[in-house]
Design a protein that fits this description.
ABC-type oligopeptide transporter activity, ABC transporter transmembrane region fold, ABC transporter ATP-binding protein, ATP hydrolysis activity, six-stranded mixed beta sheet, elongated, ATP-binding, four-stranded antiparallel beta sheet, binds adenosine-5'-triphosphate, Rossmann fold, ABC_transporter-like_CS
């Protein structure tokens, strides 16, 4: 079995194109409800039936009262009333059950869609938005969308219908008393309208504050080693405490407004009860209103507060859900990485002499001065190319541009003979393997980390050979579950071991271009020799570009690209550059200065 496979034709290993992310819609709930509409309609019907059963209660109570006053049997109306009351409760429970099913399904869909979109955002966007803030959207904000479905689509419309139906029933019994009751509720209604209008604005501020807290917490926990080593816990605690206090300040008005809804509705009801009692007395005395009609009217009046409270509380919760929906709309409006359509195999260009070619490429990080200014160079299709230059000269940026993790401001980058922008991203990143400066491992087992990005099946023996090549075979064997040991939580490797594990992953690749950013930075000389040898073997069959400060990387390279930090690029062999470039001699002599 070959440990370091030669670059293979890529038809066999090209990954299937990922499903295109759903384009953002104007109303992100509509498509999320696909497949749930029947269940939602059933829930609405059940809710309506429950409201109707509740409405029937007072009407049947009137029958009971009039039967009692006429000294007739109350069995029929009493049974009917019991059935209505029990039925309303059972239907309400069923509606809640159905809505919980639809709500959680919708939230799950939203989370899937958000994660899919987040993972396709450009790096720059993710940095600008903040990892913690984006995490808060997927975790807490997504759950709030459930209220939009439950309240917005069922509870609120049903509450409005129930309120209208109750008022109609009251009007049928006595229109005058109905006007009196409605007028008395009016002031409370106006207060409720003002409160709910304010709530959406407040809920948006609350969710943004939660996002900022999550962002701060993520940032500090990610840098926990430094936080502890620099005794920064107290300052970090204060900063996070301030963020938490902001959440409290933003949440308190929302909670207070929510708390006010119940008392305002109750106040409106009390006012209506008082007004109706005052208005009904003379009418009863004059015989314009029977006792049974009054008792029915009164029960409806008491009943009225229930749908009004549901509507008021519902509007409040809906505003919170709508604020979350706005945040998701903004998230989905962030453009994903630009991708190119997959070309048919026949359209693929033959393997060119230069694996990577930069023509007049300029790049500026947002908020910074230009990193690359009209830079041109080529890296051969076979062999080791060293990318050198002082710290901050733009070496990592060059590698990121090749992998299209960032896009150039101008100029053209050709990868394997085709403009990088024309490659479907998935295919470009199949054909280029990139090891970042931190030699990042993903949270998972040793095996998962080694197999990351590989589409072909890889047996344990091949994994072990790759580990052997970087001197890690015995280390991994001694782990509690060998290749299946999870890393990054309770159990972890040293910095150098993690870096070698990341290099071992690269050794398994079939890509025609391998980009390594400081792959030796944490290694002792014995490990460095192992890695250097493994990289040389890789470079025997493909283009390997190594960004490095190490002299060894430069000495062994067939081709050197020097970014001198002032936008100038010098290329050639090591000896040629030694003879012709003062910057190169200074760099080799250890005179690499930071760029800024
Ligand atoms: N995310 C970023 N946002 C803004 N500016 C950045 C960002 N990353 C890098 N830069 C800037 O871009 C310039 C080039 O950075 P880059 O990491 O490419 O340099 P480098 O040559 O790889 O440095 P080093 O050898 O220290 O790793 C630096 O001046 C840096 O300040």
């Amino acid at each position: 079995m070959t440990l370091l496979p030669t670059a293979r034709p890529h038809r066999a290993q090209a990954r299937p194109s990922p499903a295109p992310a759903t384009p953002p819609g104007p109303w992100i709930g509509r498509d999320l409800l696909r497949g749930s509409r029947a269940l939602l309609a059933l829930a609405a019907a059940v809710s309506l039936a429950s409201a109707a059963a509740s409405l029937a209660g007072p009407w049947l109570a009137m029958d009971v009262t009039s039967a009692l006053t006429r000294r007739e049997s109350i069995t029929g109306p009493a049974v009917g009333m019991s059935v209505a009351v029990l039925g309303a409760a059972a239907l309400q429970a069923l509606c809640g059950w159905l809505l919980a099913t639809v709500g959680e399904r919708t939230v799950l869909r939203l989370r899937h869609r958000s994660v899919d979109h987040l993972l396709r955002l450009p790096l720059r966007t993710v940095r600008e938005e903040g990892v913690g803030s984006l995490t808060a959207k997927v975790t807490s904000d997504a759950a709030l969308l459930r209220t939009v479905v439950e309240t917005g689509l069922v509870h609120l419309p049903v509450a409005v219908i129930a309120t209208a139906a109750t008022l109609t029933a009251m009007a049928v019994i006595d229109p005058v008393l109905t006007l009196v009751a409605a007028g008395s509720f009016g002031l409370a209604g106006a207060c409720l309208a003002l409160m709910t209008a304010r709530m959406k604005h407040l809920a948006g501020a609350q969710q943004r504050a939660v996002g900022r807290l999550a962002q701060g917490l993520t940032a500090h926990l990610t840098a926990l080693v430094t936080v502890k080593a620099c005794r920064h816990e107290a300052a970090a605690g204060r900063s996070l405490g301030r963020a938490a206090a902001d959440v409290r300040s933003a949440s308190l008005p929302v909670s207070r407004l929510h708390c006010l809804i119940g008392p305002v509705v109750s106040l409106g009801q009390q006012a209506a009860v008082l007004a109706v009692a005052l208005a009904a007395g003379p009418r009863i005395a004059r015989g314009e209103l029977s006792l049974s009609a009054f008792s029915g009217f009164f029960l409806y009046l008491l009943h009225l507060s229930s749908p009004i409270a549901v509507a008021a509380v519902g509007i409040g919760h809906l505003q919170t859900g709508l604020a979350a929906r706005g945040r998701f709309q903004r998230l989905f409006a962030l453009p994903a990485e630009r991708d190119a359509p997959r070309l048919p195999p026949a359209a693929r260009p033959p393997r060119p002499v230069a694996a990577v070619a930069f023509e007049d490429v300029s790049f500026t990080h947002a908020g910074n001065g230009p990193v690359l200014d009209r830079v041109s160079f080529r890296a051969p299709a076979i062999g080791l190319t060293a990318l050198v230059g002082p710290s901050g000269a733009g070496k990592s940026t060059v590698l990121a541009l090749i992998n299209r993790l960032v896009e150039p401001d101008r100029g053209e980058i050709r990868v394997l003979g085709r403009p990088a922008a024309d490659w479907p991203l998935d295919e470009l990143r199949t054909r280029t393997t990139y090891l970042d400066q931190q030699s990042t491992l993903v949270e998972g087992t040793v095996r998962q980390n080694l197999r990351l990005g590989l589409m072909r099946p890889v047996g344990d023996e091949e994994l072990m050979e790759a580990l052997e090549a970087v001197g890690l075979r015995e280390t991994v064997r001694s782990l509690p579950r060998s290749l299946d040991t999870p890393l990054g939580r309770a159990l972890d490797l040293s910095g150098g071991q993690r870096q070698r594990l990341a290099v071992a992953r690269v050794l398994l690749t079939d890509s025609e271009i391998v980009l390594l950013d400081e792959p030796n930075s944490q290694l002792d000389s014995a490990s460095e020799r192992l890695v250097t040898r493994a990289v040389e073997q890789l470079a025997a069959t493909r283009c390997v570009i190594v960004a490095s400060h190490r002299l060894s990387a430069v000495r062994d390279a067939r081709h050197v690209i020097l970014l001198d930090g002032d936008g100038t690029v010098v290329t050639g062999g090591h000896e040629h550059l030694l003879a012709t470039s003062g910057s190169y001699r200074a760099l080799i002599a250890g005179g690499a200065a930071t760029r800024r």
